[in-house]
Amino acid sequence: MMKRLLIFGMVLVFLSGCAHAISRGVLKEVDREITFSALIKAPNAYQGRVVLLGGIIVTTINKQEGTLLEVYQTRLDREGRPTNTDRSEGRFLALYQGYLDSEIYSKGRKVTIAGTVQGEKVQLLGEIEYRYPYLITKEIHLWEKEKPVQYERYPRDLWYDPWDPWGPWGFWGWSSRRYHWYGHHWHH
Q1: DSSP per-residue letters across 103-122
Q2: pTM for this one?
Q3: I need a surface site. Which of 141, 146, 169, 179 has the fewest CB within 10 A?
């Protein structure tokens, strides 16, 4: 009995680590056959179909009918997280029928959206007319801001003694230790 509970608990932990950003109910409605490249070529052909898209927010505009997000499309990983942000097949517009704060849903944030295709909207993008696939959102997932990777400021001293009263650089910044990195000799 205890063994079964342990196995069941491990399965739950494993499955919770692989959870998708969008709820199961909405994911069941998504037509996975529709690719973004097909959608951007003929948005009107997919009217009424539910798609799963993601990318990086370009603009957030609050309007009378809701909040309109312009999103720079990127591929999604298995969890629905936007990846490979240097590659895109275009942009799309998604209308959330409610209020989203533009300070939270701000430029540069990653977002995953499940929505119903309404067709296309033509708007100016710079000085050109751009045909955006246009959706009404069913569910939105805003991803946490990624924390920058922290690197050490100075090379690690393999002979550093944390209990040395003068620290890694010695008394008044002078050290009698020799450093041998990549075949070079440095004296401090």
Answers
A1: TTS-TT-EEEEEEEEEEEEE
A2: 0.70
A3: 146
